């Protein structure tokens, strides 16, 4: 039986290349690489979107950036596992959010998923894997945008792990294995995408 895995995240799930600002090819992006690794018994749905945040919908980006867009995937597809890779955009200085605010946004997203399946009378809701993001650095072109984020992001893993424990979700801290690029301090280079796909393959095969 084929298992469907939804990768719901931001630009680091979408595959933004920090050197060019364009999208990495499917041979580089971690969801696409994960699909190759897992093989024919798994289907990976790539649902990354630049600027997507847990708490706020960034201006001008429209509904696609908001977590409300997740419902369209749940309506259309039978999902076995949802990988949530969000939190980086919430660290932007203009939002003035603290770690507790961001963790509350994650909690609200998970509650929305669970409520959706309860109301739809589905036989069971998907498993959920929460990823805590790589540590943002205040360097390069995004230094001003993410002013103050370096201190907050270090605390985010513990807050996300606590949410995962309360909501009985799985959790993995990406900062354990990957680091952001020196070009912009936010996005991941090709080697980091490889590391994520390697780690997630191991985790998923243990579900």
Automatic annotation (TrEMBL):
Domain of life: Bacteria
SUPFAM superfamilies: SGNH hydrolase (SSF52266)
GO molecular function: hydrolase activity, acting on ester bonds
Gene3D superfamilies named among the record's database cross-references: SGNH hydrolase
SGNH hydrolase-type esterase domain boundaries: 7-194
Database matches in InterPro entries: SGNH_hydro, SGNH_hydro_sf
Protein name: SGNH hydrolase-type esterase domain-containing protein
